[in-house]
């Protein structure tokens, strides 16, 4: 096989075989295929696409470039979820102890935040002592014993994706549907779960800005997962406004505990319950999605899973006493209030601006090397559809002076107050 022939094949829009895709990924991972040929190939894929079979071959070849977790020592159906990234997205922190409490097994690898989106691992690190790296045996034992564990993604998972993603970043080939879908799915398939729910965010604060793109990505990822023998469901959830009220690492842990205690925000509770419904059904714990959804809602409302969260934190070395006194998670930050400049109903916000503002305050990173401040962030006092009165506080910035001026500017221009009450559609579609 010759890389030039394969680049030509894709350049003319032809379909590549499994063997050809595997040749490219193996060759590139080993350094036999140089960056300039891979760049040319990626651009050919960008323009001519790949169908579901080719995308599956690509995802599997990238999965097989490194370690594929063997979770068969964990009894029962292993479940996992993945979010394409949003602002204030703390779903995993609530979902992990909740599904574990309800009898499922969740063995999860999560990422760090980059740019305007946060990462579960950074959020967990705002709990003193919490270990985000565990030896594989300990990770599996913990899931067997308490039902859940969340660790950072090991460097050995899908190394081909890491190398290709870095190249895509500098060759303007990130925003290609088959490349995004196979990149995400290669890591999910390597993480060893049997059933996966993909939370595909759509809207200004998300990677996918339109419903059409989010649907195409979802369908392709579900296809890849199914062809790889997994049970996969995708849900399209709105990222027109941040999820919940709090954005920032420790602040999001605070809100997750509130949700597990039974008084969390409506939108967060809803997204968690929809994902839980699908996962419990896939794990055979309930007969139907509806039963799992209702079980999630009542369990959250009754605050029954909060002790499972403390058990999970304790098992990974986190200081449970520290988080039980929730106000510790508010830190010693300074506060700046943003007030409404007119009365009416909150009609629109710019979710992306909230993510960028949190990053400017220090809650997120511009580059992988940046250090973050675990306690800064935003607290949204109003959500879309809420009534607002002139002079009322609509958002509180938790800050340490850094980036404050930029953040205020971004937040002030993010609010649109109108005269009609608007209902935001949170769950846009379910793709199975
Ligand atoms: N997330 C990934 O893991 N890969 C992509 O290509 C895009 C988002």
Radius of gyration: 22 Å
CATH fold-level topology of the largest domain: Pyrimidine Nucleoside Phosphorylase, Chain A, domain 2
Helix content: 40-55%
Q: Which regions contain 5 or more consecutive residues with pLDDT less than 50?
A: none
**CATH architectural grouping of the largest domain:** 3-Layer(aba) Sandwich
**Small-molecule components bound:** uracil
End-to-end C-alpha gap: 37 Å
The neighbouring-strand order within the major sheet is 3-2-1-4-5-13
CATH class of the largest domain: Alpha Beta
**What structural category do the secondary elements indicate?**
alpha/beta
Global morphology: globular
H/E element order: HHHHEHEHHEHHEHEEHHHHHEEHEEEHEE
Determine the CATH superfamily of the largest domain: Nucleoside phosphorylase/phosphoribosyltransferase catalytic domain
* SS summary, helix count: 17
**Biggest sheet, in brief?**
6 strands, mixed
Structural commentary:
- InterPro entries: Glycosyl_Trfase_fam3, Glycosyl_Trfase_fam3_N_dom, Glycosyl_Trfase_fam3_N_dom_sf, Nuc_phospho_transferase, PYNP-like_C_sf, PYNP_C, Pyrmidine_PPas_bac/euk, Pyrmidine_PPase_CS.
- Homodimer.
- One of its GO terms (cellular component) is cytosol.
- Residues 345-418 form the Pyrimidine nucleoside phosphorylase C-terminal domain.
- With 432 residues, this protein is an alpha/beta fold.
- It has three domains: 3-49, Up-down Bundle (Transferase, Pyrimidine Nucleoside Phosphorylase, Chain A, domain 3); 78-323, Pyrimidine Nucleoside Phosphorylase, Chain A, domain 2 (3-Layer(aba) Sandwich), CATH 3.40.1030; 330-418, Aldehyde Oxidoreductase, domain 3, CATH 3.90.1170.30.
- It has 17 helices and 13 strands.
- It has helices at residues 3-11, 18-30, 35-48, 52-63, 91-101, 120-124, 136-146, 159-169, 177-190, 211-227, 249-261, 266-282, 289-301, 306-315, 320-324, 351-361, 404-412; strands spanning 78-83, 105-110, 148-152, 195-202, 231-238, 246-247, 334-339, 344-348, 377-380, 387-388, 393-399, 416-418, 427-431.
- The strands form three sheets. The protein has a six-stranded mixed sheet with strand order 3-2-1-4-5-13, sandwiched between helices. It has a four-stranded antiparallel sheet with strand order 6-9-11-7, with helices on both faces. A three-stranded antiparallel sheet has the order 10-8-12, with no helix packed on it.
- Helix 10 links the parallel strand 4 (195-202) and strand 5 (231-238).
- The structure holds uracil (URA).
